[in-house]
Amino acid sequence: MRYTSTSDAPVEEPDTSTGPADTDDGASATSPDASDPVDPGPPGEPAVAAGDPEWVAGATERPRSGSVFRWSAALVLTFLAATLFFPSQAEATLSFLQTRVIATFGWYYTLLVVGLVVFCLIVAFGPSGRITLGRRGEKPEFSLPAWFSMVFACGMGIGLVFWGPAEPLTHFVQPRPGVEGEPEELATAAMTQTFLHWGPQAWAIYAAVGLALAYAIHRRGKPLSVRWTLEPWLGDRVKGRWGDVVDIVTVLGTVFGVATTLGFEPCRSPRGSTTPASCRPRPPSR
Asked: What CA–CA distance (Å, rounded) separates 179 from 189?
């Protein structure tokens, strides 16, 4: 066996001095693990395993992180400067944009979430559910209980402590546009909206994004970047400016999402550490 280096990735070349050894199934001795089962890939796409040229070639690709960092930092700092120096105008603008986005795309968001639930069920119980999100023969790094614990903690976070009881009450007191009726009907609508945000629908969104990342990174050997999840649609354009745009949007969404979650906690901690006057025990009567 000898190796040649005509490209970025080493290419395994059979040694022609001795010729391939005969086996019972006709497989060449130069093909390791030829008898091992291979996880099926999506229709029309071959399976990828450790040592395959496609895996090695994919592992050498690196996104242009410099431009992504510069643009992301510039946009975040610009937003922070605008909110610090013009707080009233920023609050009014963000409130207006939030109202318009919800009123315009609320139906699309709900429909998309339902579609993701159906998609996850098809993937989980269909032929694609047998695909290993890793190299052939790899064992899981974490046990199933540990994995569920990490997913639950990262998926819920601090928000569940506050919004668990506060969100249904908020939807009950301030129903979304178009929701009217008796208190019982408003309570049902409030719980329905809360389940949409915290129930299986939310986990379907996490699962869809996680599956795309896991398949690209652990199965195809791509770098840790969201751009590679869109490679089937964008092709080689993910290596250029289109890929940079995808990563910049991802960074902005992550930064603002984490900042929102952490921003709630300082506001809640002082209130949670005090006892309302109406709940304090009364002194014993004499």
From this structure: 8
